[in-house]
Amino acid sequence: MPSRSPFAPLLLVGIALSTIPPSRAVDAAAVPSLGLPAARFVAASEAETALGRALFFDRRLSFNGTMSCSMCHVPEQGFASTASRTALGIEGRSLPRNAPTLLNVGWLTRLFHDGRENSLANQAWAPLLHPLEMANPSAGYVLEKIAATPEYGPLFVAAYGDATPSMSRVGTALEAFERSLVAAGSRFDRWFYGAQADALTPQEQAGFRLFTGKARCSSCHLVGKGGTLFTDERYHATGASLRDPDSGAHPVRLAADTATEITDVELAAFVSPTATDLGRFEITLAPEDRFAFRTPGLRNVERTAPYMHDGSLPTLEAVVGFYNAGGGRVPNKSVLIGPLELTAREQAELALFLRTLTSPAVETLPAQVRRTDP
Amino acid sequence: MNTLTRRVATAGLLALLLIATVRTATADETCNSPYTARLIKGQEQFLHVWVLGVKGMGDGSDKLVTVDSDPKSKDYGKVIHTVSVGGRGEAHHMGFTDDRRYLWAGRLDDNKIFVFDVGSDPAKPALVRTIDNFESSSGYVGPHTFYATPGRVMIQGLSNSKDHGGVTGIAVYSNAGEFVAKYDMPTGKSAIGTGDGYGYDIGINPAKNVMLTSSFTGWTNYMMDLGTLIKDPEAMKNFGSTMALWDFKAMKPTQVFEVPGAPLEIRWNLAGGADWAITATALTSKLWLIKQDKDGKWQAKAVADIGDPSKIPLPVDISITADGKGLWVNTFMDGKTRYFDMTNPESPKQTYEIVSGKQVNMVSQSWDGKRVYLTSSLLANWDKKGADDEQFLRAYDWDGKQLTRKFELDFYALKLGRAHHMKFSAKPAQVAAADRAR
Ligand code: HEC
Ligand code: HEC
Predict the structure, then answer these.
(1) I want to staple B239 with a disulfide (CB 3.0 to 4.6 A). Which of A247, A307, B262, B430 is the partner?
(2) What is the greatest pairwise CA distance in chain A?
(3) Which ipTM did the prediction report?
(4) Can you give the residue range of the structural domain that contains A132?
């Protein structure tokens, strides 16, 4: 009941601010793109974005009506899946990889943990047809289903002039929607790009100096002058993997204050063999690409645990600890990864810095995109 | 505000209907709602088993399998009828309408609910309706418990279609299959306690006008491969740890109990005004008693361990005897069927156990407690793999000291699938004759 909310006037101010062009904005927080490089794309029409939004949330677009893009890229979970290490697809099939955030995905030129795709419009068809994800039997099957769903007619007309769905229209509409998921303007951005000196605490600033200095993070998670995605979009073997040869026993949480341990032997009856994930190598077959994964961006990383391609690290502290120890055991580890000898205090500062990359849009976007009326 | 008026109207309607006679206020014949008519106090003639299809086996589809369970019949211990419903959607539990003419069977994945006519000819159940608006009407996912109330079926959800997590609620349908209302599980901190929004089972005590609900986990976890789940610390955080007490007529939660480790099936002992309920926590392996204290305030407390909790035996289905003095408890991991003496509900004592399978989930007993039936499947992706994936229906006689195997059906050899929930039926004439004889 917004009319009775004591915050109603404040909300209105917030909306008004966001319509002021960046140059004249009094409060940099209202600029969701502050800190992002200039976009390489022209913003899509509202009609195309609205169609993409409808497709994104539509569970009917999976074979059995249970999966939509939003079931794995959950708006309230930073458009990722935070409730499991790796995502869960149709009929509960475990995907081998963690579902990445879609926030700021419009800025990426290589998609997936192994960079095998290069456009959002093409990418959209992968989950629709993947037998572990939405499992539709064919592209034609999906298009016929959309054509037979009355709500879509007017949306296609508004976006493309006629009501006929096609592979490219479905792809570009989803791309249009995904490009609208802009979430920068974090406290870091206000400090670094907005020259707001007090936007970061001294510890967080120290964390940033470590990130670009002693801890060498920015050699892969690049920080640019004109804006940044925190990724070089290249492939590196860090050694992050669930399949640690030493692990024979697993701690299991049973309730808030109760835990036990279970061994691989006790679990034997439940475990199906899992293949090693070779990362970029699976696309190039180049030996140097074995176990290499794309450097992910780090914006909003606070909201998208667990981390790495397989969700093997539960917290940002665990990630920092992993790098500090020199990464994981892997044959062709990147030369940029090695023991860092950070003090406990430095590790804490680094984790604090990573938490300054959260955009205010992380809170506001879910409600915006879930609203059903245009 | 439309929903609000509808809710008030529904609550009123429920209250009115409640005045309709409650046929029995004692415990059930394997745990039916107390509003269920025509309890079978004699010999159950048929056993309906809700079976999960397995890809590549037979038609690969979920089906209702009817087994002849009358020792006097020539087909005793045989499958006499099957109805395939098409596809796999995680077939799970079933429940009768209050008049016992229809059996509602749900699927936890695609949320379809199949209504079978078991009143016309219980030997040949017929699919008469498929309800496919559970999710679109309520926003809930995973129709789990089907609980008869006068003219209505209450359906407890396990999850929701927003994030496949565990925040869910109860949807109420008319016996004719129309969506009537929805009630969210309590969430957040308030005067009644701290709700976590999870749901699992429903148990009503009509005399006290209270309804108990329990809590499990969302789609992401119950659909996940169990071996993967146990090793996933993010996912293991997402299990319910509460039970809620509701004012049944008003359909309002009045108290939230902290019951850590996923409390599942709820069994009331209503015999002779006992008025207590028992549940088992799946992860922490304990029996919890819900009972009024001296001041009439409802309390929940842990009263016994089930096996060695540190080994995660995973207690699953439980079945209370009609007199409330005994409780069957199946533990899935070690495949054990255990009997607890409940004479003192504050201190249940395990008095018997057998390994009844490589894995075991559901347990149903006859009204007189002399016959016990077990099935093997828990959830498609939680069942064991390879040689440990036995799928059976096993029927036993119970003489108070030991279980004696009467017959067994291998559901894989029969190309049927994974055997899950069981419900009994009998021809109306047989029920009437048995009632007269008593
Ligand atoms: C079953 C869960 C699931 C569903 C459903 C799903 N995704 Fe994904 N998505 C993933 C996973 C897991 C990955 C990473 C896969 C990989 O790297 O191989 C991913 C990757 C992506 C990426 C690449 C992001 C990046 O940083 O490279 C995009 C874009 C994307 N998905 C969009 C979509 C769209 C659009 C839909 C609906 C048409 C969708 N997804 C449906 C799980 C899912
Ligand atoms: C050699 C290049 C490189 C360096 C140096 C590096 N990273 Fe990474 N980072 C990666 C790659 C590649 C991944 C993805 C690994 C995977 O998916 O298994 C990654 C993943 C991460 C993630 C997880 C993001 C997510 O969404 O899962 C975080 C957080 C992170 N790095 C922070 C850091 C920090 C902090 C440092 C400095 C201590 C650092 N990185 C140094 C390449 C690097």
Answers:
(1) B262
(2) 64
(3) 0.86
(4) 46-182+361-370
